[in-house]
Description:
DUF488, mainly alpha
Amino acid sequence: MNFWAEFRDRYLKELQADAAAEDLATFRQLIDQNKRITLVYAAKDTEHNNAVALRDFALEGYL
Length: 63
């Protein structure tokens, strides 16, 4: 498994954990209340970072 796939899998599992439930509820509210949201990240890689993984998580119906 490559680094990105491993990172993404671990991050998505972390998002699905009970500890993230409150933060995900807030994220859902932001999405519901706004036409557009901006995800900010500090990584140099624009295609492989936590914001991309979070976007995919939302778009793939996990929210």
